[in-house]
Design a protein that fits this description.
Blueprint lengths: L2 E5 L6 H16 L4 E5 L4 H11 L8 E4 L2 E5 H9 L3 H4 L4
Parallel strand pairs: 1-2
Antiparallel strand pairs: 1-3, 3-4
Helix pairs in contact: 1-3
Length: 92
């Protein structure tokens, strides 16, 4: 069990790249260990991310604690603002 970050190495979207980088930077600054899962390696990984998140159109970054869905970038960002990242990630 642990934090999983679904992301992509292949995207034309500057917004997605920026969001992914910000999530990684914040997790590292808080010394939260996480595993990255690159959805660009195959459609089945992307489908798994979408299925687990319950959103058929979900785009990275998406965060999970094990198989438990935590949320997307917007929700993560709100948790950062509220200083509730550990609760958001179901670590507290």
């Amino acid at each position: 069990m642990g934090i999983k970050l679904y992301y992509t190495t292949v995207t034309a979207s500057r917004e997605v790249k920026s969001q992914q980088a910000e999530v990684m930077r914040i997790l590292e600054s808080k010394s939260i260990k996480y595993e990255t899962i690159d959805i660009s390696v195959g459609g089945e990984i992307r489908d798994e991310m979408r299925s687990k998140s319950g959103n058929p159109t979900a785009v990275p970054p998406q965060l999970f604690n094990g198989d438990q869905y935590c949320g997307d970038y917007e929700q993560f960002s709100e948790a950062v603002e509220a200083d509730t990242v550990e609760q958001f990630l179901k670590l507290a």
